[in-house]
Amino acid sequence: MELEVVKSLEEIAACAKLQLNEIDLISRTSKCGKSVLEIFDVDEKVSFSSDGGEEEVDIELERSEQSDDRQEKMAHEIDCLIRQIERMQMAIRKRQLKKSSEQVSEEFPGQETETLTECQVRCKQRENQENYIEANVNPKHQPLCGNELLEARSLRQAHNRIQQQIDEVICRYRKLREIIFEMRKRIRCMEGNLIDLNSKAEKYIVWFGEVAKEMNVCKERYNYLLEAKMSRREALKTDQVHTARFLKYNAAYVTKTRLKREIAEFIDEVKDIETLMGELHKELDRNMALFEIPRTNSLDNPAAFLASMAWTVRLSDEFRKSGIKLKDGVN
């Protein structure tokens, strides 16, 4: 490793030494972006394009011109940063594979180049990775010593620290997405509640207008009630009148037991009248029979005829009295 790489790492010390909870994620990532890109500027420029050409890294974030929501912009910027990090990691892997393939080609110079299919290319890459691992395990070059070893260790520590920070950024980003999703749901609920409150407020406004129209009428009714209501003395007098009337009606009315008794007596009197009417009918029949008999001996026995007439008059008087009692009972 060259010394320039170590010097480029010194520029990101401000971001590496601070804790994640002490710095804003977006500002920290934007500050570290330039220094992280300088790590790869050792021998040649790293290309992130699919064609493999030499292109500059586009670090500008895509922003939606139509959206005014700050949360959506923040999430969009974090997405762009994560995609940038993934591209950088892919570029590192490609460079490692390229170096390993060059080492393998140097070890086997007589190997023929052939056109390979996609599956063969993948198998070749795996073989190159295995060869690269074996080369790292059993290196042919001399081990590093002194300052070079310290520089390599510092580079590895910086790489691990950056990788941890990237993982932490991804975790924070996912949590932020969840928080934004929850906030959106709550905002939608609040919008529904605001719509309900708005409809209720409109109803209350209509009701307030109707009440305002009725205020004058209510005042007129109140004044009329003040004039029409009776005083305390009039109320007591009216109460006494109604109490006396109630007692009078209560005395005139009969109880249930007395009503039953009166009904039973009335039924008995009706039965007596029926018996009297039967006897009267019999007596009238007997008298009519006497009038129909030839009056041969009428002058010999006039007492029987007079007695029958007296009995008839007595029965008619009793019938008249019972009729008067019935009329009094109905009234």
Structural summary, described in words:
Pfam families: DUF4763. The chain is mostly helical and 331 residues long. The protein folds into two domains: 3-105 and 120-199, no CATH class; 256-293 and 303-330. It is 77% helix and 0% strand. It has helices at residues 3-10, 13-17, 25-39, 70-107, 118-137, 147-228, 232-252, 256-292, 303-330. Helix 1 runs parallel beside helix 6, helix 4 packs across helix 5 (118-137) and helix 4 runs antiparallel to helix 6 (147-228). The longest helix has 82 residues, at 147-228. The chain is rod-shaped and about 180 Å long. The model is unreliable at 1-13, 28-68 and 109-116 (pLDDT under 50).
Overall structural domain count? 2
Unreliable segments of 5+ consecutive residues:
1-13, 28-68, 109-116
Taking the alpha carbons of the first and last residues, their distance comes to: 134 Å
Structural class: mainly alpha
> What Rg do the Cα atoms give?
62 Å
- Biggest β-sheet strands, sense, barrel: none
Helix content: over 70%
> What integer is the average pLDDT?
70
Strand content: under 5%
Principal-axis shape equals rod-shaped
Order of helical and strand elements: HHHHHHHHH
* Count of strand segments: 0
What is the tally of helical segments?
9
InterPro entries: DUF4763
Pfam family, one: DUF4763
